[in-house]
Amino acid sequence: MSIIYHLVLADYWHSLDITSPYLPQGFASEGFIHCTRGLDLLLQVANTYYRDVDGEFLLLVIDETRVSAEIKYESDFPHIYGPLNRDAIIATHTMPRQTGGRFDLPGSIKEIEGGDTD
Description:
Elements: E1 3-9, H1 10-15, H2 27-30, E2 33-34, H3 39-49, E3 57-63, E4 70-74, E5 77-81, E6 89-94, H4 107-112
């Protein structure tokens, strides 16, 4: 299994039809779903781009081998060029935040990844 990650605002995620494939809010303008690979890079992206964004974030854990749409790696980032079929999402986790908005890894993901953040 090859794991990639995607961050989404919890309010948006919960507003979606769970029977439909997932598309993020910016898909129409960007044409792909931003993902990351590896927990270190996930935290770097979260704290660089989403630290000042209000709201609770969810981490989607995606089995890359189950994704139906094309995945292209661009600058080491996996981009999904189409709707994300929900059966490729193997887990969701709330992303904990410290005071000031800094993200931490959820304890549950550390267990799944065996504590390895590479």
